[in-house]
């Protein structure tokens, strides 16, 4: 008795489990407008949607090993929602350390200190709801590199030092034994 419905370009098919097949249109994220319902179906339906995109929050550190004095950063990448709002927190702290800067989706550490170590969270307000991810910043002690002189330079330096000793002995013999200590 009801006229058959055909899907137009402005209608998206949604899967509804009820006694009849229903068609609706997605209006905004999280809301469905049911356009055609028969009799007893009005209060009794479940909506199952399959989104086109999957929203995930990925955290990428600049390096796995950070030393004191280094420059480091975390990048928070939200896939599936380019308009997501990003905020950063450090677990157990009210504010981020004073040597950090938030630049877009990046948390930048300038001149890393020992007290920068800890768990940092990226909070993303997405169209699917709030999401968060966390990463640990481990700060190691910087290893001092010793400057090593090559073997040739060591031999040359040793040889030159030996020549200087000979010159000193030779030059002191001009004055005789008056100026030498006995």
UniProtKB/TrEMBL annotation:
InterPro entries: Ig-like_dom, Ig-like_dom_sf, Ig-like_fold, Ig_I-set, Ig_sub, Ig_sub2, Nectin/Nectin-like. Residues 157-166 have a biased composition (Basic and acidic residues). Keywords: Disulfide bond, Glycoprotein, Membrane, Repeat, Signal. Its main location: membrane. Residues 171-182 have a biased composition (Polar residues). One of its GO terms (biological process) is homophilic cell adhesion via plasma membrane adhesion molecules. Residues 147-182 are annotated as: Disordered. It is found in: Membrane. Residues 147-156 have a biased composition (Basic residues). This is Bm11264. The keyword Transferase does not apply. GO terms for cellular component: adherens junction; membrane. Residues 51-138 form the Ig-like domain. The lineage of its organism: Eukaryota, Metazoa, Ecdysozoa, Nematoda, Chromadorea.
């Amino acid at each position: 008795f009801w006229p058959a419905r055909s899907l137009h370009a402005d209608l998206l098919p949604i899967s509804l489990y009820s006694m009849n097949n229903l068609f609706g249109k997605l209006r905004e994220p999280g809301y469905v407008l049911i356009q055609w319902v028969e009799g007893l179906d009005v209060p009794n339906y479940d909506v199952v949607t399959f989104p086109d995109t999957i929203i995930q929050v990925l955290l990428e550190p600049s390096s796995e090993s950070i030393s004191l004095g280094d420059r480091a950063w975390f990048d928070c990448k939200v896939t599936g929602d380019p308009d997501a709002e990003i905020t950063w927190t450090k677990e157990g702290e009210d504010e981020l350390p004073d040597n950090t800067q938030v630049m877009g989706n990046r948390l930048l550490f300038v001149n890393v200190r020992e007290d920068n170590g800890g768990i940092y969270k990226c909070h993303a307000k997405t169209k699917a709801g709030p999401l968060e991810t966390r990463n640990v910043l481990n700060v190691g002690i910087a290893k001092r590199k010793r400057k090593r002189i090559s073997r040739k330079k060591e031999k040359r330096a040793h040889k030159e030092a030996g020549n200087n000793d000979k010159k000193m002995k030779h030059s002191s013999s001009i004055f005789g034994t008056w100026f030498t200590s006995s």
